[in-house]
TrEMBL record:
Residue ranges of domain Lactate/malate dehydrogenase N-terminal in the record: 31-182
Keyword Cytoplasm: no
Record's protein name: Malate dehydrogenase
Lineage: Eukaryota, Sar, Stramenopiles, Ochrophyta, Bacillariophyta
PANTHER family named among the record's database cross-references: MALATE AND LACTATE DEHYDROGENASE, MALATE DEHYDROGENASE, MITOCHONDRIAL
Length: 350
């Protein structure tokens, strides 16, 4: 399918946007780093970014395996130059041992899927003890080596790792709320897929707004805003679809039975998010959902549709009217979301 990357086109229904593997106008000029590039998400995400018409340079960084990942990806005939780095020694191509500095210097966008995934029975918050420190350390390196880059945080729990990243950047004097996003695109992908199935529509033509955070009941798909949805689906079905979207991650964790969580769909979602950020940097008007600093609610960070421009988020958009059903979930979600955000802030400052 990807044999001729210059001709293959994949269109993706994200908020008012289409990402593709081909473009006649895009300049392959941006440097992107993937931190955690040898992992379950990192490898397919790096492959998709190697196909991006916007990426001129792709740095694959991890604590293991990146020389091999980079050598492998380097044989795909697209313009993006590839490097693979490890923390201290070892790189591909073999060109010195500057590790993360080499990976990050000059980056426009840094995507972070580094950290451990869930096993059955765990919540995303159960990952906090391991992943909080990993994200803190990596964002400290970003503050040092690419303070102007847009950071896209995938590592869970996103509701806490994004506030951790913000506190690290603030402490270093380089925090710009426009340039820090938690990636919630997989929630949008799932909601679009499930609505497509329910309405008998091509899911690529569906675009569900998903607000809140990225964990269980903090994920709130606004199905009432999908044209035709309320006429086609009764309250029981809507409830089932809402809960399935909120716990879509658990569905995958259970099916993988101890071998991790969503990787392929997340790589796709991470690619869609990053590609949209890159297109906005190149001057296109893009709107997509992201978990960002926000004044829309009492929670200091909140996922909602955001406009993106050359420097990241240019406007945090509202999410419109909620139905009584959605308001019920919204009220239930906010205390949890605020607690998870505060946990991240406290961790970073202690
Ligand atoms: N935001 C979202 O929607 C989603 C988030 N996730 C999260 O993404 C994270 C990664 O998931 P997977 O790729 O499945 O895990 P994985 O275990 O397959 O890969 C993680 C990679 O991170 C690397 N790593 C660990 N510490 C590192 C460090 N200090 N610097 C650089 N790399 C480091 C590991 O070596 C490994 O290669 C998990 O926290 C998971 O919960 C997963 C799916 C969806
Ligand atoms: O469920 C998990 O742990 C991974 C994740 O965030 C998702 O698939 O949405």
């Amino acid at each position: 399918m990807f044999a001729s990357a210059s001709r293959a086109t994949v269109s993706i229904a994200t908020k008012m946007s289409k990402a593709s593997f081909s473009s006649t106008t895009a300049a392959a000029s941006k440097k992107v780093a993937v931190l955690g590039a040898a992992g379950g998400i990192g490898q397919p995400l790096s492959m998709l970014l190697k196909l991006s018409p916007h990426v001129g340079e792709l740095s694959c960084y991890d604590i293991v395996g990146t020389p091999g990942v980079a050598a492998d990806l380097s044989h795909i005939p697209t313009p993006a130059k590839i490097s693979g780095d490890l923390p201290a020694a070892g790189s591909w191509p073999p060109k010195g041992n500057d590790g993360i500095a080499r990976a990050l210097t000059g980056c426009d966008v840094v995507v972070i899927p580094a950290g451990v995934p869930r096993k059955p029975g765990m919540t995303r918050d159960d990952l906090f003890n391991t992943n909080a420190g990993i994200v803190k350390g990596l964002v400290e390196s970003c503050a040092e080596h690419c303070p102007g880059a847009i950071l896209a945080i995938i590592s869970n729990p996103v509701n806490s790792t994004v506030p951790i990243a913000a506190e690290v950047l603030k402490a270093r004097g380089v925090y710009d709320p426009k340039k820090l996003c938690g990636v919630t695109t997989l929630d949008v992908c799932r909601a679009n897929t499930f609505v497509g199935e329910a309405l008998g529509k091509d899911p690529r033509e569906v675009d569900v707004t998903v607000i809140g955070g990225h964990a269980g009941i903090t994920i709130l798909p606004l199905f009432s805003q999908v044209p035709g949805f309320m006429d086609a689906v009764d309250e029981k079905k809507m409830d089932a679809l809402t809960v399935r979207t909120q716990f879509g991650g658990d569905e995958v964790v259970k099916a993988k039975a101890g071998a991790g969580s969503a990787t392929l769909s997340m790589a796709y979602a991470g690619y869609v998010f990053t590609e949209n950020v890159l297109r906005a940097m190149d001057g296109e008007e893009i709107t997509q959902c992201a978990f960002v600093e926000s004044t829309l609610t009492d929670a200091p960070y909140f996922a909602s549709p955001c406009k993106f421009g050359p420097d990241g988020v240019t406007e945090v958009l509202g999410y419109g009217e909620l139905t009584a059903y959605e308001k019920g979930w919204f009220d239930k979600m906010l205390p949890d979301l605020k607690k998870q955000i505060q946990k991240g802030i406290d961790f970073a400052n202690n």
